[in-house]
Design goal:
The structure holds two protein chains of two kinds. Chain A is built from two helices and twelve strands; from the N terminus they run ααββββββββββββ. In chain A, 32% of the residues are buried. Chain B contains 16 helices and no strands. The chains are: A mainly beta, B mainly alpha.
Amino acid sequence: MKNVCKVFILVLFSFSANVKSATPPAAPQFYRDLTLNIRKSAEFKVPMIGTDQSYSYELEFADPVYKEPMIGDMALGNNPAIFYRQFWDRVLLKDGSHVSINGEDIPLTCIFISGQDNRNSGNIDPRFPQFIMKVYLVANDFSCVGPINPGFPENGGKEEAWDTYLYFEVRDPTIMLPVESKIRYRWNEFHSVLVK
Amino acid sequence: MKKIIMLLIFLISSVLHAEVVWYPSPPEAYKLGEVYPEAQRLLFAFDYGHALVYETLILKKGTIKNPKELEKELLTRIFSILENPPYIKVDEGDIAPNYVYKFPLVINLFDWSHMLHQFVLDVLATSEDRGPVMVDRINTIYEKYKSNKAIAITDECKSMLFMDGHYFSKTFRKQFPSFNLLIWSYHWFQIKLYEALLAPTKMERDVAVANTIAQFKSLISDLPDSADFDMMPETATEAPTFAKLFPKIPAAFDNNHMLHDIVSDMITSDKVPVEKLRGEALRLGRMAQDPDAFKVPVCNQN
């Protein structure tokens, strides 16, 4: 009996230690604020042999598509305090938001974010990002449905919904630095680097 | 795993108010073709024809020396499609990539509105009940259409000035009169089908649909003389029973049809250079959505 009590106290201790070490789960508004903190403008370069190509964007937020961001927690093991959190957000952009490609202004219509909050994962290695936000700045789709066509193939059309978008990842919400950027331009994709 | 699937379903279902993909499809979707295949194939041909003419005019913009010749050439191509219409709904982006790329908002508005057109026809063609159940189904579909505010064309009645009151207006019908009448004949056919499909018995509907197809063929048999439209046909005039049953839908369709004419004019007019097309299409598309723009207190008093 004494041993059982010892084990119980040990489990309880380790559980409470874990709970204490973990960040309290954030409210949905926290993720909406992250979305709204995405850089309002940026310029990128597509490195190419011969002549580099460049593009830039400017955006202003309009109404959100979701009342609040979607959140899903994936618990690891039996400890409910240890989990990976995924979140998704979608916000329409105001008319006038655009990406300039080769002198042509194409309307940016919405922002879609698929993110992961790892602060409660128990992994505190500094090489492991605490956040990953995959950001899609979508052009030409005022309905903002994607990246996958939800009704495909029964509804017809293509499996992917967006022919043109800017994509980048944000791994540090303090500086919102766009990394791993690429542009999909009428189905063709090019990797790019941030200029400013 | 179950949790993830539930979350994905939630994720998809919660974007229902902002989608150009009508998901899930209504159970009646595209059943019109099972009952009236010729009518359905003609509707597919119209989509094809619209896309083809827009793409051609964009590619040739500013370089058309002889509009009469081009109109003849285009009509020859379109008539061969109308004589042998497609069996499937062709993706507009495959026929008209430049048009789709330059008119993103307008394309979204048309796609969403065309789905409403199609599903209303599907219900009218297939509903066993010809009374309140059918009316309720159409109203349910219409509510879903309206709830998608990001890409819904308003159902407030607009004056014809919405179509004809701009600095580039009427260019298409002046340069391509026969083609314009062909497009108005398309629109006439679409709205006349509603009326035909409201006939009380299946036998009467069969006859009415066959008559509508025959009348349409007669309208386009010798353009421009065969179609004597002075103005774009309007839903409440051509389909009065339908307009009485569904008083808000006619204006939504008419506004869609007016926007088609606006796009035709914009693409044709020299006053709208290629580099301005996208911005002007966005401006006029927003006008089509705006319930207050060109609003008239009484419908069909243009």
